[in-house]
Amino acid sequence: MKTVFLFPGQGAQFVGMGKELYEKHDSVRQLYQRANEIIGFDLAKICFEGPETELNKTNICQPAILVTSLAALESMRLAHPENQSFVATAGLSLGEYTALVVAGALSFEDAVKIVERRGVFMQEACEQQPGGMASVIGLDREQVRKICESVAGVVNIANLNCPGQIVISGETKALEEAGRKAKESGAKRVIPLKVAGAFHSPLMKPAEEKLKKELDKIEIKNPKEPVVSNVTADYVKTAEEIKNCLSRQVVSSVLWEDSMRRLIQDGVTKFYEIGPGQALTGLMQRILASSSPTRSGDEKVECYNF
User: What is the rounded CA–CA span in Å between residue 26 and residue 3?
Assistant: First the structure.
């Protein structure tokens, strides 16, 4: 049986996340306290008490989700010491940084620092070039790709989450036009997302350039276990590959469905979503329900949330 740990991205946050784990485990309290010292403000207080408007700020929710996900992993290991081994890790967008910490490629300290900076840079890019994101329900990727290409202005596929759920991102007018065309093409729904701007689009280019410089300042190691990159839907096994993919990630499409299918094809039969929310478990269920993904062996593929 092959196991993979999955970690959520931005949008998974909610006020109160991690509080129960903090109160239960000394080692979890130490994680939050270390994070507070690293970034210079009380991250734990914002996670546990809010307000929601503060927690939702890009530069706060990113380290908050990373630390809470690692707290959940620590709690799982304490409660279920048998669940220690895994063959790979993956994370959705921001969650890839958590995956890299767990795989030994990034230190906790560097990860907290870099995701806080990543949040700042992404917010700055949003303010420089306003835009947004929308979830398109009920069309396939080729239909959505052609719609984006037919629209004047910047709009592109940001997330290939699962069959029938694709997120597009770009300039406000172009995004609205693409949404209109998607509905005309038979989309069941087009849902505007509550985000600061056009993540995973060319409008994040300023963030990519700043992030690349920050990544050069921290130590990235070859991971002890493979990590599946959002950018390539393939394993990254060297520090140089990781650095390249992390900087590209903010302007590139998140190939989540492709990443999960790659893992299933390679024989993974058990997935654990670790962190706030249950979004990744839901996506996996839709991936599995859409068809029978090619995989090694006949063992049932299962996904659990912790």
Answer: 27
pTM of the shown model? 0.95
Q: Which residues are catalytic?
A: 93, 200
- Which residues have a Cβ under 8 Å from the Cβ of 252 and sit 6 or more positions away? 200, 230, 231
Per-residue model confidence as pLDDT tens digits over 214-244: 999 999 999 999 999 999 999 998 999 999 9
- Token pair listed for 161: 């989450």
pLDDT tens digits for 47-97? 999 999 999 999 999 999 999 999 999 999 998 887 778 999 999 999 999
For 275, residues 6+ apart whose C-beta sits below 8 A from its C-beta are 7, 8, 12, 65, 68, 69, 72, 73, 95, 98
In the chain, the DSSP E strands lie at 2-7, 88-91, 131-137, 155-162, 165-171, 189-192, 227-228, 235-236, 268-273, 302-305
**Nearest C-alpha neighbor of 248 from the set 232, 227, 225:** 232
Say if strands 302-305 and 165-171 run parallel, antiparallel, or are unpaired.
unpaired
- Two structure tokens written together for 200: 């995973």
C-alpha 52: how far from chain center: 20
CA 142 to chain centre: 23
